[in-house]
Automatic annotation (TrEMBL):
The lineage of its organism: Eukaryota, Metazoa, Ecdysozoa, Nematoda, Chromadorea. The gene is Acey_s0024.g929. This is Major facilitator superfamily (MFS) profile domain-containing protein. Its main location: membrane. The keyword Ion transport does not apply. Pfam families: Sugar_tr (PF00083).
Length: 352
């Protein structure tokens, strides 16, 4: 098995390896092995770029945005779930923390069992493999009917246009040449704006941020859960907005970015006042920030990327964007820690 479906299937091996290494580290006391286990998780997360690509390719045009958005919605649910099980009342203790790393084995096992039963992306089957009969069969299985001739004709036209205007096999370097350069720059900048906004700094360190601005630990934990909850809740309305012909992708991106800018400005103002009445305002402004991210960059960026590249260029385009996304995420996260240490007005983060 190869293609989008095969890629999604085989990447689950990385989760099993990671869970085994973390468990080994815990029960043998050789804790540096955890770093190797987390490395495998990092590779796995990078390869999940296949998910929005697959969802976009199997979806009818009129609901493509909503289908691809399920990827982001489930990410937000996963973040909230992780915040909950990481609480001291659940698995966030010195004795139980390894079980947190074992949880991903469950969905990975389900994927291994279920992915062989689902069709391959018809776009991949036709445009990459050149298998017309196989693509027709995949499309019929996805739609649950044999009346797919109109949609298949559109798919075949896309394949013909793709082969007429470019080579069958697009290399990474080709995405920086004239025919692709503008699209590549647009999507890379979208990924940079998504991560340089600092969303993962908020998600990673929100509890410590709230404690640094004056909340006690219990209030900070509650505020962190509120952020996770609002992250999920704010993604849901986008299902009705992203495929709306009067709104669509670009306005959501613009409005979301404006909301993030305003929220950060208000957050900075609220954290630089000594008035105790204001100490809960950072919670409000961080929630505003997360809501703005959820309706804009968080929902739109990956969908937009999958739509503006042809099928034979989409995989490499998403590879570049995955590197941009996670590379920038790492830089911002580590930079935040250094700023915390070097700034005298804000105490550094400490493990608790």
């Amino acid at each position: 098995m190869s293609g989008r479906r095969g890629g999604l299937l085989y990447t689950n091996v990385l989760i099993f390896i990671s869970a085994a290494l973390v468990g080994f580290a815990k029960f043998t006391g050789i804790y540096p092995v955890i770093l190797v286990g987390r490395l495998f998780v990092g590779i796995y997360v990078g390869l999940t770029v296949l998910v929005p690509m697959y969802l976009s390719e199997i979806s009818p045009t009129n609901i493509r945005g909503r289908m691809a958005l399920t990827h982001q919605l489930l990410i937000t649910i996963g973040i909230l779930f992780g915040q909950i099980v990481g609480l001291p009342d659940f698995l966030g203790t010195p004795e139980r923390w390894p079980y947190i790393f074992a949880i991903p084995v469950v969905p990975a096992f389900l994927q291994v069992m279920l992915l062989p039963m689902i069709p391959e992306s018809p776009h991949y089957t036709l445009c990459i493999r050149g298998d017309t009969a196989g693509a027709m069969q995949d499309l019929e299985e996805l739609r649950g009917t044999q009346d797919v001739f109109a949609e298949f004709d559109m798919l075949r036209q896309e394949a013909l246009e793709s082969r007429r205007t470019m080579t069958d096999h697009i290399m990474l370097i080709d995405l920086f040449r004239r025919s692709f350069r503008f699209r590549t720059v647009i999507t890379v900048v979208m990924m940079l704006s998504q991560q340089l906004g600092g969303i993962n700094t908020v998600m990673f360190y929100s509890t410590h941020i709230f404690m640094n601005v004056g909340l006690n630990k219990n209030h900070a934990l509650v505020a962190t859960l509120l952020i996770g909850l609002w992250n999920v809740a704010s993604t849901v309305p986008v299902f009705w907005l992203i495929d709306n012909p009067t709104l669509g992708r670009r306005p959501l991106m613009i409005y979301g970015m404006i909301g993030m800018i305003v929220s950060i400005i208000l957050l900075v103002i609220s954290t630089n006042t000594s008035d105790t009445i204001w100490k809960f305002l950072p919670v409000v402004f961080l929630i505003m920030f997360v809501v703005s991210f959820a309706i804009g960059p968080g929902s739109v960026a990956w969908i937009y990327t999958s739509e503006i590249f042809h099928t034979n260029a989409r995989a490499n385009a998403n590879a570049i964007l995955s590197v941009t996304n996670w590379g920038t995420n790492s830089i911002v996260s580590f930079a935040f820690l250094q700023i915390q240490v070097s700034t005298t007005s804000i105490p550094p983060l400490r493990c608790t």
